[in-house]
From TrEMBL:
Designated name of the protein: SMP-30/Gluconolactonase/LRE-like region domain-containing protein
Protein source organism: Sphingobium indicum
Signal sequence bounds: 1-18
Superkingdom per UniProt: Bacteria
UniProtKB keywords: Signal
Matching InterPro entries: 6-blade_b-propeller_TolB-like (IPR011042)
SUPFAM superfamilies reported in the protein's UniProt record: Calcium-dependent phosphotriesterase (SSF63829)
Length: 317
């Protein structure tokens, strides 16, 4: 009788165990093995390599497919980079675009020298070009979009402009008070250029006229206010990955059809995400934890470790 009872309990336990769904695997994560990195931007190459820029110390990090930890690709000691915001891989032309800026605490002369649009060889990391940012330290190079012909467009945050880069020349392509806080910038398949403001949460569309000038800005109204919209990357068919760096932010799958914008948050997005990029069906992102650099209440506190984190590209809540 006792044996039968134990056998019954064992069978019941087995059935319960079989019915329990398997635990989901932990989200993929690639360590950035250095403190106070404050990664602000991420880009990817066609072969799946991820590249991250450090706002904290100017290091450019790289993680190849399968890496568990990123390694230093371009060191600040050799490059002269001080603080890096946007990074953008232009596979077509073999270039890595980098937004170089100075530290706020540095003298104006040092910040002016650091304010530049830097180009590096995408494979070797060798320096290719150093183009002073128009406006020097009164401007802030934040991120890039590159047209098929190699012309680069820069979201410039402080003066509310888009800078155009052709060859070794950079000029202000469009300036408008509505672009104050310009941060995220990306082309779609049709050559339309989208830009978001991290300060106002507004979103605009422009494009290029036949003579190369900018078309008038058109404001697009999302279904909700964007939460400190930061990095913007086009992933095809009118869809974009939008990083929202606010307290309620994360990664948003944004779709634009005409003047209509729809927003679908991705599950697993982290507060303070500053940039995200797509590789296949996975979004790889960085949470810059930039409040530890800007909020006096957090000054000197440990922001904890930094990482590149992955999440599936599918609509969430």
């Amino acid at each position: 009788m006792r044996r039968a009872r134990w056998m019954g309990l064992a069978v019941a336990a087995g059935l319960l165990g079989a019915a329990a769904p398997p635990s989901p695997p932990p989200p993929p994560e690639i360590a950035i093995p250095q403190p106070r990195v404050f990664p602000e931007s991420i880009t990817a190459t066609r072969d799946g390599t991820l590249i991250v820029g450090s706002a904290g110390n100017g290091t450019i990090w790289r993680a190849r497919p399968g890496d568990k930890a990123a390694t230093i690709f371009i060191a600040p000691d050799s490059s002269g980079l001080v603080s890096v915001l946007g990074v953008f891989a232009d596979d077509r032309h073999g270039l890595l675009y980098v937004c170089s800026n100075g530290r706020r605490s540095d003298p104006t002369e040092a910040r002016d020298r650091a304010a530049a649009i830097r180009l590096f060889d995408l494979k070797s990391g060798a320096p290719v070009r150093n183009i002073p940012t128009p406006g020097a330290s009164r401007s802030l190079c934040n991120d890039f979009a590159v047209a098929p012909d190699g012309t680069a467009y820069v979201a410039e945050t402080l003066r509310g402009s888009i800078i155009r880069v052709r060859g070794d020349k950079a000029d202000v392509w469009i300036a408008d008070p509505r672009l104050a806080g310009a941060d995220g910038i990306a082309f779609d398949d049709d050559g339309q250029l989208y830009v978001t403001s991290v300060t106002s949460g507004r979103m605009f569309r422009t494009g290029t006229n036949a003579d190369g000038s900018a078309r008038p800005l058109v404001e697009l109204i999302p279904p909700r206010k964007l939460d400190r919209p930061d990095g913007l990357r086009h992933i095809g068919r009118g869809r974009f990955l939008l990083a929202e760096a606010g307290d309620q932010g994360g990664i948003t799958l944004m779709t634009v059809k005409g003047d209509t914008v729809t927003l679908s948050p991705l599950p697993g997005g982290r507060t303070g995400t500053t940039s995200a990029v797509a590789l296949g069906k996975t979004s790889w992102a960085v949470a810059g934890k930039l409040r530890y650099r800007t909020d006096p209440a957090l000054a000197g506190q440990d922001p904890g470790p930094f990482a590149i984190y992955g999440t599936p590209i599918r609509a969430g809540r």
